[in-house]
Amino acid sequence: MSCSFVCGWTMDRKAILSWTFLLCLCVMISSAAGANTVLKDEEELEDWSNRKAPTGRIKYNMRKSLNLDQDGCYLQRGKNASLEECGFNATAKTIFIIHGWTMSGMFETWMRKLVSAVMQRENEANVVVVDWLSLAQQLYPDAVNHTHTVGSDIAAMLNWLQDERALPLENVHLIGYSLGAHVAGYAGTYVKGSIGRITGLDPAGPMFEGVEEQKRLSPDDADFVDVLHTYTREALGVSIGIQQAIGDIDIYPNGGEVQPGCGLADVLSLAGNFMEVMKCEHERAVHLFVDSLMNKEHVSYAFQCTDPQRFRKGICLSCRKNRCNGIGYNARKMRKRRNSKMYLKTRAVTPFGGYHYQMKMHVFDRKHSENADPTFFVKLYGSHNDTGNMPVEIADSIGLNHTNTFLVFTEEDIGDLLKIKLTWEGASESWTSLWSNVRKSLMTWNTKPAKAVLEVRRIRVKAGETQKKYTFCAQDSSQTEISPGDSITYVKCRDGWEVKPKKRLPM
Ligand SMILES: *[C@@H]1O[C@H](CO)[C@@H](O)[C@H](O)[C@H]1NC(C)=O
Ligand SMILES: *[C@@H]1O[C@H](CO)[C@@H](O)[C@H](O)[C@H]1NC(C)=O
Ligand SMILES: *[C@@H]1O[C@H](CO)[C@@H](O)[C@H](O)[C@H]1NC(C)=O
Ligand SMILES: *[C@@H]1O[C@H](CO)[C@@H](O)[C@H](O)[C@H]1NC(C)=O
Ligand SMILES: *[C@@H]1O[C@H](CO)[C@@H](O)[C@H](O)[C@H]1NC(C)=O
């Protein structure tokens, strides 16, 4: 698709101008800077659609073997024989994978990865790729319009399977990426009965954000609707992935905004371009889902929280009353509770899961160090491995005479947490603190500034993945004061957070 075509068209349709403008910009940049990259991608693309496929515009390609170079087989509504030929097993799970908008008109490389991961995890399932490429390779608003057509076609296919083979709808799982998520929503709306599960992988935002439930994926479309949001950052008034919560659970990895490993620098260093940055963040939802299929033994959990800022403070690491859930394929159906937003941090590469710790420490100021504004680091020592020094991230600044709560995320499994080292960055290590000291000494006419002294006696820790709570006390109970450049080591002193034993009942 040529860029001028897209750009010319945006002139009179203002609503999607910015989205198309963005893409246009990216296409221009990619064709100018990386014609080779584009070609390479196309070579990798699967083109099942051109191989002895039925003539309809919506095709149901049932994958028959893990060898994805083989064609698979096409299910055709009304043709009993196609079910035999494809070996459709009505008592097994049925998983439909639905792609989104396309500029190339071909399957992108993620499709192969997702299909293969689904087939490996569910080796008896009927895995069907819904191919609506010819309707998706249109101007974005036209492709949006077609989501309705494709969704009702899938509903008709499922109705036929119910009539013909008594297919139990509760065994049906639709997985839709981007526009494909809303296609799945329409399928759920029009099918007779209720589909078991719909997973939306970064459902498309433009023309769906803020519209009524009937016109987008919504919790009514299946018994369980789970959504991963990975690219909800707004640019020029739109975001490519929908920002609002639209499922029974909505998971926002890394806040749903900036995915690790997708930064401009990360991607450009891998011979990418701006298009690749967008693709990296949007497509991350698919890769997180693939990861959840492949890494059954290390389930990543997401935690319910009212907003990403509170999550970043470490306030929300609870699993009580369904407040946490596995992500991706491992998400469990919960009692209907609408629009439950959940968060987690991830690594930049597969396996994406890491380990979350909530830490609380009361910072006492007993020696008039009101202006201390400390920069703290923690280093965790575990039974398997240790972390490096990690900055303590607190939104504003460390509160004095105050209990500070923060989130620590480790990429490695360090095993049981044994020891914590708290370090106050030394004056010489940071130019800002150096400058503030210089300024202080100038202000006080060169009298040596008083050394700031704060006190931290213990650190309370809750591990998100195990839900265990511990209290860590200063290794040397007489050494709880800390100044710039100093460290204090804390060791586990009790399970749980109780500071004092509860009032004992008389024996
Ligand atoms: C399709 O096949 C099933 C079982 O193989 C059979 O019961 C049904 O009658 C067939 N339907 C038609 C329309 O041939
Ligand atoms: C169909 O699927 C069910 C459930 O997974 C399984 O028990 C059965 O063996 C399968 N039948 C065939 C013919 O593969
Ligand atoms: C959507 O598509 C239908 C045909 O499928 C067409 O009649 C209608 O005008 C289209 N709507 C828009 C807004 O393009
Ligand atoms: C903290 O409390 C102490 C008294 O316990 C007081 O002297 C000090 O000024 C307080 N510091 C701040 C920053 O409020
Ligand atoms: C410990 O972690 C480091 C990275 O922080 C890693 O390179 C190393 O392989 C790990 N060691 C073990 C024994 O897991």
From TrEMBL:
<keyword id="KW-0325">Glycoprotein</keyword>
<dbReference type="GO" id="GO:0042632">
    <property type="term" value="P:cholesterol homeostasis"/>
</dbReference>
<keyword id="KW-0732">Signal</keyword>
<keyword id="KW-1015">Disulfide bond</keyword>
<feature type="domain" description="PLAT">
    <location>
        <begin position="355"/>
        <end position="492"/>
    </location>
</feature>
<feature type="active site" description="Charge relay system">
    <location>
        <position position="202"/>
    </location>
</feature>
<feature type="binding site">
    <location>
        <position position="221"/>
    </location>
    <ligand>
        <name>Ca(2+)</name>
    </ligand>
</feature>
<dbReference type="InterPro" id="IPR029058">
    <property type="entry name" value="AB_hydrolase_fold"/>
</dbReference>
<dbReference type="GO" id="GO:0005615">
    <property type="term" value="C:extracellular space"/>
</dbReference>
<feature type="binding site">
    <location>
        <position position="213"/>
    </location>
    <ligand>
        <name>Ca(2+)</name>
    </ligand>
</feature>
<keyword id="KW-0106">Calcium</keyword>
<dbReference type="Pfam" id="PF00151">
    <property type="entry name" value="Lipase"/>
</dbReference>
<protein>
    <recommendedName>
        <fullName>triacylglycerol lipase</fullName>
        <ecNumber>3.1.1.3</ecNumber>
    </recommendedName>
</protein>
<dbReference type="GO" id="GO:0034375">
    <property type="term" value="P:high-density lipoprotein particle remodeling"/>
</dbReference>
<dbReference type="GO" id="GO:0008201">
    <property type="term" value="F:heparin binding"/>
</dbReference>
<keyword id="KW-0964">Secreted</keyword>
<dbReference type="InterPro" id="IPR036392">
    <property type="entry name" value="PLAT/LH2_dom_sf"/>
</dbReference>
<keyword id="KW-0358">Heparin-binding</keyword>
<keyword id="KW-0442">Lipid degradation</keyword>
<feature type="binding site">
    <location>
        <position position="216"/>
    </location>
    <ligand>
        <name>Ca(2+)</name>
    </ligand>
</feature>
<dbReference type="InterPro" id="IPR013818">
    <property type="entry name" value="Lipase"/>
</dbReference>
<feature type="active site" description="Nucleophile">
    <location>
        <position position="178"/>
    </location>
</feature>
<keyword id="KW-0479">Metal-binding</keyword>
<dbReference type="InterPro" id="IPR016272">
    <property type="entry name" value="Lipase_LIPH"/>
</dbReference>
<dbReference type="InterPro" id="IPR000734">
    <property type="entry name" value="TAG_lipase"/>
</dbReference>
<dbReference type="Pfam" id="PF01477">
    <property type="entry name" value="PLAT"/>
</dbReference>
<feature type="signal peptide">
    <location>
        <begin position="1"/>
        <end position="34"/>
    </location>
</feature>
<dbReference type="InterPro" id="IPR001024">
    <property type="entry name" value="PLAT/LH2_dom"/>
</dbReference>
<dbReference type="GO" id="GO:0019433">
    <property type="term" value="P:triglyceride catabolic process"/>
</dbReference>
<dbReference type="GO" id="GO:0006633">
    <property type="term" value="P:fatty acid biosynthetic process"/>
</dbReference>
<dbReference type="InterPro" id="IPR033906">
    <property type="entry name" value="Lipase_N"/>
</dbReference>
<dbReference type="GO" id="GO:0004465">
    <property type="term" value="F:lipoprotein lipase activity"/>
</dbReference>
<dbReference type="GO" id="GO:0008970">
    <property type="term" value="F:phospholipase A1 activity"/>
</dbReference>
<keyword id="KW-0378">Hydrolase</keyword>
<comment type="similarity">
    <text>Belongs to the AB hydrolase superfamily. Lipase family.</text>
</comment>
<keyword id="KW-0443">Lipid metabolism</keyword>
<feature type="active site" description="Charge relay system">
    <location>
        <position position="282"/>
    </location>
</feature>
<dbReference type="GO" id="GO:0046872">
    <property type="term" value="F:metal ion binding"/>
</dbReference>
<dbReference type="InterPro" id="IPR002330">
    <property type="entry name" value="Lipo_Lipase"/>
</dbReference>
